[in-house]
Amino acid sequence: MKITKLELKKLINDVLREVSENNLDEEELVQRSGELELIHDNESYMAKQNLENIARYSQSLHDSLPDDYPLPDWAENKISIAKAHISDVKHYLDYNLQRKDKVQHIDTEKICS
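Now predict its structure.
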């Protein structure tokens, strides 16, 4: 599904307006995030390319960093934040892919019965 910049701006403004009008909390926003997934084409090319770079950079840092090297706090903090973000996406995908498989399995059972 392709979406124009104007349609995207309208969608973002609608969501922001709804958030401010209804005082939605983070959990409600996450539940409604499925609506925003319609924006992209279900292609993960850029995400996979970024993940390849992250994996390569991570391995390089891991291999070159001596065990006793004192990293500055800001560097340790950035690594911790990156780990948390990657972990969030991994758990999101695990949950949604598992859920999608269950839905497809249920649909198949309905068709076969």
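The first helix runs from residue 5 to 22.
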